[in-house]
Specification:
single chain, 284 residues, alpha/beta, Rossmann fold, 2 domains, ten-stranded mixed β-sheet, 10 helices
């Protein structure tokens, strides 16, 4: 199993995972704590609340453990509010947005699970804000998590898993919410293990597979003609390789034809078309 990094804003969010893994302390800088379980190959990083603390903590971590950049799978785990999503359920973020500047990050999603957009905001979202995006989740750190990690790891190593704590910005019963959050530990760990296993199987074995080398060339020919950024082309190439493990090249072309990408589309339209293609290729 590849190593995993579990990132939490609050010690209370990390508590059930610390209890499960019994990790040893690696370092602490003010509110930032880093722990490691050798038997589970899991790092636990507690950052403190807010985007700045998240960015600082991740930067410190990868400055100290730069050798992990190509292998570790990173998960931001914690609570989030949502107007419509059911309380005490787990959702896997398929899109991560900044509420204030509308910048977005699209993770590589390649397993079937309950998906939702995650919107990060610099203060706790109230019911009025949630109502404007009723299907989304709201937190304070998710976008900073993804946006900072882009400088250290690849997209397929960045994932957010959230527990719905409230539907209006107010946690009605804190003890009950914490208890329910703890009860979801196994579900979150199973999801993280499935994601990590899929990454290991489909991405870290690519260079050893002669069939994949042929697919690389075919996919390059396709993606190089599309009006996408280099980052977007990289996302599409990985999704296409995943798809071609079980499907024919002609089927890949059929998927691309469903959501045509051409230069006349606006930037937002291209992003949406690409996201639809990625979801189809990853079977979600």
């Amino acid at each position: 199993m590849m190593p995993r990094l579990f990132v939490f804003a609050y010690p209370e969010e990390a508590a059930p995972y610390i209890h499960r893994f019994s990790p040893k302390h690696l370092f602490q800088i003010k509110n930032i704590q880093c722990l490691y379980s050798e038997s589970h190959r899991c790092y636990l990083l507690i950052t403190g609340s807010g985007s700045i603390h998240m960015s600082v903590a991740l930067t410190i971590f990868f400055e100290r453990f730069s050798h992990l950049k190509n292998d570790i799978v990173c998960f931001n785990i914690g609570i989030a509010g949502s107007y419509k999503r059911p309380l005490h359920h787990i959702f896997y973020a398929s899109k991560i947005s900044n509420y204030h500047n509308e910048k977005t990050f699209y993770p590589d999603i390649f397993i079937q699970y309950s998906l939702a957009e995650l919107i990060s905001i610099e203060f706790p979202a109230d019911e009025k804000i949630m109502l404007a995006y009723p299907d989304a989740m709201f937190d304070m750190e998710g976008f900073a998590f993804a946006n900072t990690l882009k400088f250290f790891v690849h997209n397929h190593q960045i994932h957010c898993i959230k527990f719905i704590s409230d539907n209006n910005g107010i946690i009605q019963d804190m003890d009950n919410t914490i208890s329910a959050y703890h009860c979801k530990t196994d579900e979150v760990l199973t999801l993280s293990e499935n994601i990590t296993h899929t990454i290991h199987t489909f991405f870290h074995s690519l260079s050893k597979d002669s069939e994949n080398k042929n697919n690389f060339a075919e996919i390059d020919n396709i993606t190089n003609t599309l009006p996408l950024t280099q980052s977007q082309k990289h996302q599409l190439k990985k999704a296409a390789l995943f798809f071609l493990k079980k499907h024919l090249l002609s089927e890949l072309n059929n998927v691309l034809s469903l959501y045509p990408l051409h230069s006349a589309l606006s930037k937002r339209e291209k992003k949406q078309a690409l996201q639809n293609i990625l979801k189809t290729l990853y079977h979600v």
